[in-house]
Specification:
The complex is a heterotrimer of chains A (429), B (325) and C (254). With 429 residues, chain A is mainly alpha-helical. Chain A is 64% helix and 5% strand. The radius of gyration of chain A is 33 Å and the shape is flat. The chains are: A mainly alpha (429), B mainly alpha (325), C alpha/beta (254).
């Protein structure tokens, strides 16, 4: 009979095998842990890279370049009683000619005028209107430089490159340098970015019209989705009997929360614009579409806050002879309200950044004038970013990145507000 | 004057159980208003389905359904003149399908390992404090508007991939599917990581204890016990993420192309259903042309697809919950 | 006449789904006395209590059969508005649950919704009276605007009692009102109950036999959903008729 007993030697062998195996298992565990860390590191790294690069690209937008030009505002050129009648374009050009008398050829002169923003003549006119004492002789007026000069000052147009590889000629750069030497070039805070509407010229482009469009749309969105949302949530959570019908409503809401936003845009296009004939590109319609999108979010968040109110409160109220309606609206809903507001803010933040549905309803126009009402043609901040991102002009890169920074700042503020609200009203029951 | 007579014995006061002080009509009204608000959600769904179907039917009266669904050429055009013959253009949706699938597949390939690995680490290994600030930071990825992702994809990622590919001798389009898919993948990481994290945490401690009690390492417990138990929930999160990827618009509009290209090569440029919807509807359009209506047919397709994915996700997660309740 | 029952229950059955919780309960509750319902956990005493103010209506699977009359009126009759009922049959719960409002508003809420006062002066009088009757006035009279949730456990429960009596009910139901409180707070409330019976009829559920003996004049012993015995408190605790009662008070079951 063979000896099949488990000997001491077998047991020792198993022990060493087990120990070697154990080492392998532990190192496999360490590797496993590291995969997790690397995954998180990569994700957050991507985030940092994205935000960082956009920030670097956009931070320059906070400054704009202005140059001082000497123009002749004598009575031959500007009639003090008819300012509008003056030809400021010519005044500006003459001023430049006088400042650089050596520039004679037409092509060179064109390059010279190109150093100024196309808006320069209107800026001179505005300066004159604001301060008529400037009239009557020579005056030095600060106007916006062209976007190329701005890029040069920010180092984006590289002086080191050979002339045919950059946007500004050596001659233009020399002129700019002479402005600098004479103290006639200054970099100032770029108020235009915050006070102007869209523009073809990057140095004049501003986000105000887009911002106002977004604000108007969000106001409509809140006004429509918040009351309807909380009423629906209160009904579903506190009053609705648990039956097939209320289940059906709940399924609908959960589904709507996951529908791609572009589909809401299609709905807006076909029903709001086509069937109801509401005006295209109006914040009213934009707000309506956004409110449809935000409604499920608000309902779901509000139901969660209602559920968090302890049942003892309801019992106390009902035990005293309050009706369900009284108990809910006098006691339960007020306690859930902060949570509902938090949900609304989160929903608004999402609506602020959503572009696709607004494209569908036409809020994609080139809007120069700042919209003043809910029916004025408008665009929204994320749409403006989208449009500028498409622009081939190099200077728009900075503006687009800056607009993204503004958008992100708004989102950060909203989210911080939501967090503060949640923390402040976390009642201890 | 005193409203309370201290000697009064309430036990002897008459009773009335029929009349109360509240206004029953106002309360009924409030309830009716609330019911109407709840029905609005249903109304919206009906509105979406109805408008999409209505316009799509309109479309399918001009372009046969079969051609739409099986056609491999997509170049939507409208007749410029009434008598123009070969002007209907091609409305075959297959290249849009494949484009959408290609980019979404790349996105899922990026997001799934990263999302799951993050979720496992956060749920099983990270200390409370670390988890408390890493989880919100990952959520930030989900909160950034997609137009920002699209901008970054078009401006930085796509040229980078092109340059890398070029230096390796590969031909990469300037608007490659890879670039769009990669960025989209990062965007949906939090969807997978958050949901999977919740699911993994929900696996009962009893299972962990049993495995560790047998002498398994933590990693082995995760790989062999916890993850298999959490698979339905994780699958649900993956379906939800896929649904999000398919419906994503801005990243693809800005970073993928508009050229309908039937290919499986991620280095080429493809277009998706959502990008085409945008292209068809921005700019001047008459409402009745086949071109504009095709956008609604595409929208219907998109809605149906995401509906199925969402429904499947819900069913799987529900079945999973039944296991542990 | 001093002993006319104010509440009469006949043939009361309660089912939660398929489970039967109460079986043919017949009980009379006398006016202006404290009646205690005792018995081991799960015997149905709280279920019965909650039938009297129809709080069991809130449980979807609960079915109540039988007849309960208060001052001769069937409270389950179809024309009865349960809201009106609860205004006149008040309840104090096991765990104090003041509203997260000011002390004043806690007490004023009931009278406000039932329209018991015509102006601010009357309301202030009513609140003061309720708080005095609940033995809480001296402790809170200087801080009526402070939240009710900031009081101690015993004070909160007295606040709940105050707001219950502010509505001027006929009957006050109490569901183990002292079980969440310390002995000192318990003693204060037991004293309060004894005073309150001059103006109200009180029914109290308690799991402490000693409390029942201290506080009530009549006692009803419940066991496994049936009413086993009822009678004057002294008799129940010294010479009960039923063996089960005897076993409970001697601690053999419970």
């Amino acid at each position: 009979m063979t000896d099949t007993s488990y000997t001491t030697q077998n047991s020792l062998d198993d022990l060493t095998k087990g120990q070697k195996h154990l080492k392998r298992r532990h190192s496999s565990e360490a590797r496993f842990k590291w995969t997790g860390r690397i995954a998180i590191f990569f994700s957050l790294g991507f985030l940092a890279l994205m935000i960082g690069s956009i920030f670097l690209d956009g931070k320059g937008a906070i400054s704009a370049t202005k140059v001082a030009i000497k123009v002749n505002l004598g009575s031959d050129f500007v009639d003090p009683f008819d300012i509008a009648g003056a030809s400021f374009g010519k005044i500006v050009k003459d001023g430049m000619k006088d400042m650089f008398p050596e520039v004679k050829k037409r092509k060179e002169r064109k390059a010279l005028y190109g150093l100024l923003s196309s808006d320069a003549q209107y800026q001179v006119e505005n300066a004159v209107r604001k301060d008529p004492s400037l009239l009557g002789g020579l005056a030095t007026i600060w106007v916006s430089a062209s976007d190329d000069v701005d890029l040069l000052m920010k180092g984006i147009i590289n002086r080191e490159l050979p002339e045919n590889e950059r946007r500004m000629s050596d001659q233009q750069i020399a002129w700019v340098d002479s402005f600098i030497r004479e103290g006639k070039l200054d970099r100032v805070f770029n108020t235009a970015f915050f006070t102007n509407g869209a523009s073809q010229e990057p140095e004049l482009a501003g986000i105000l019209s887009a911002l106002m469009g977004s604000i108007f749309s969000l106001v409509i969105c809140f006004v429509l989705s918040f009351p309807i949302g909380i009423m629906a949530a209160i009904y579903l959570e506190e009053f609705a009997p648990k039956n097939k019908f209320s289940d059906f409503i709940e399924i609908n809401i959960n589904n709507l929360a996951a529908v791609p936003s572009i589909v809401f845009g299609l709905l807006g296009l076909s029903i709001f614009l086509n069937t109801f004939g509401l005006p295209r590109s109006a914040p009213l319609v934009g707000g309506m579409v956004l409110s449809l999108m935000t409604l499920p979010t608000i309902i779901i968040a509000s139901r969660a806050s209602l559920r968090a109110v302890p049942p003892s409160i309801r019992e106390a109220a009902l035990g005293m002879g309050a009706s369900s309606v009284q108990s809910t609206f006098h006691h339960v809903a007020p306690l859930a309200l902060p949570g509902m507001f938090t949900g609304a803010i989160v929903g608004m933040a999402r609506a602020l950044g959503d572009t696709a549905p607004l494209l569908m309803i036409g809020m994609v126009a080139f809007v120069v004038d700042v919209p003043k009402g809910f029916l004025d043609t408008a665009t929204a901040l994320p749409v403006q970013i989208f449009l500028w991102a498409d622009s081939p002009e190099r200077a728009f890169l900075e503006k687009t990145s800056a607009a993204i920074i503004v958008l992100l700042i708004f989102l950060i503020i909203m989210n911080i507000a939501a967090i503060i609200l949640r923390k402040k009203f976390e009642l201890r029951f | 004057m005193a409203i309370i007579d201290p000697e009064i014995n309430f036990a002897e006061m008459p009773v009335d159980f029929v009349n109360s002080n509240r206004s029953k009509t106002i309360e009924k009204l409030i309830i009716i208003v609330m019911i109407m608000c709840s029905l609005i959600a249903v109304l919206v769904t009906i509105g979406i389905v109805a408008s999409l179907i209505f316009e799509a039917i309109n479309f399918f009266q001009r372009i046969p359904f079969l051609d739409f669904v099986t056609g491999v050429k997509w170049s939507p055009q409208t007749a410029l003149r009434v008598d123009q013959v070969a002007a209907e253009g091609a409305f075959g949706v297959v290249p849009l399908f494949t484009g959408t699938l290609l980019i979404s597949a790349i996105a899922m390939l990026v997001a799934t390992p990263l999302g799951l690995a993050s979720a496992v680490y956060l749920a099983e290994y990270a200390e409370r404090r670390t988890r408390d600030w890493i989880k919100p930071m990952l959520e930030i990825l989900a909160g950034i508007p997609t137009v920002v992702y699209g901008f970054f994809a078009a401006l930085t990622v796509a040229p980078f991939i092109r340059w890398t590919g070029g230096s390796m001798g590969l031909e990469v389009a300037s608007e490659s599917a890879l670039a769009a898919g990669l960025v989209m993948g990062v965007m949906i990481i939090p969807l997978i990581s958050s949901l999977s994290d919740d699911v993994i945490n929900a696996v009962p401690q009893a299972l962990r204890d049993a495995s560790l009690g047998l002498g398994a390492t933590h990693a082995e417990t995760i790989r062999k016990v916890i993850l298999p138990a959490a698979i339905p929930g994780i699958a649900g999160s993956l379906l939800l993420a896929a649904s999000r990827a398919i419906g994503e618009t801005m990243i693809v509009v800005m970073a993928a192309g508009l050229a309908a290209n039937l290919t499986a090569n991620p280095l080429e440029s493809v277009t998706t259903i959502t990008a085409q919807i945008v292209a068809l509807l921005t700019g001047d359009q008459e409402f009745d042309s086949a071109k504009t209506l095709s956008a609604f047919a595409l929208g219907l397709l998109l809605f149906a697809a995401t509906l199925c994915l969402n429904y499947a996700s819900l069913r799987i997660v529900k079945k999973y919950r039944e296991q542990y309740d | 006449m001093a002993n006319t029952p104010i509440i009469t229950a006949r043939d009361v059955d309660v089912h939660y789904g398929d489970k039967q919780a109460l079986n043919k309960i017949a009980l009379d509750i006398p006016k202006n006395k404290v009646t205690s319902l005792i018995g081991p956990s799960g015997c149905g005493k709280t279920t019965f209590l909650r039938c009297i103010n129809r709080m069991n209506d809130l449980v979807p699977i609960a079915r109540v059969n039988g007849e309960i009359k208060i001052v001769g009126q069937d409270i389950y009759a179809p024309e009865v508005d349960v809201v009106a009922l609860r205004a006149q049959v008040g309840m104090v719960f096991q765990k104090p649950n003041p509203f997260p409002k000011s002390i004043f508003d806690n007490v004023a809420y009931g009278p406000r919704i039932h329209g018991l006062t015509k102006n601010k002066a009357e309301m202030q009088e009513l609140v003061e009276w309720s708080l005095k009757k609940a033995g809480l006035w001296n402790e809170v009279k200087d801080r009526l605007e402070q939240p009710g949730t900031g009081l101690s456990g015993g004070q909160q429960q007295r606040l709940c009692i105050a707001r219950t009596i502010a509505v001027k009910p006929k009957v006050v139901l109490m569901d183990e009102p002292c079980s969440a409180l310390d002995p000192i707070a318990t003693a204060i409330i037991e004293e309060l109950i004894d005073e309150l019976r001059q103006n109200f009829t009180i029914v109290i559920v308690t799991h402490s036999m000693q409390q029942a003996a201290r506080v009530s004049q009549r006692t009803a012993f419940f066991h496994l959903g049936t009413l086993v015995e009822t009678g004057p408190t002294k008799k129940i605790f010294t010479s009960p008729e039923d063996e089960r009662t005897q076993n409970y008070i001697t601690g053999r079951i419970g």
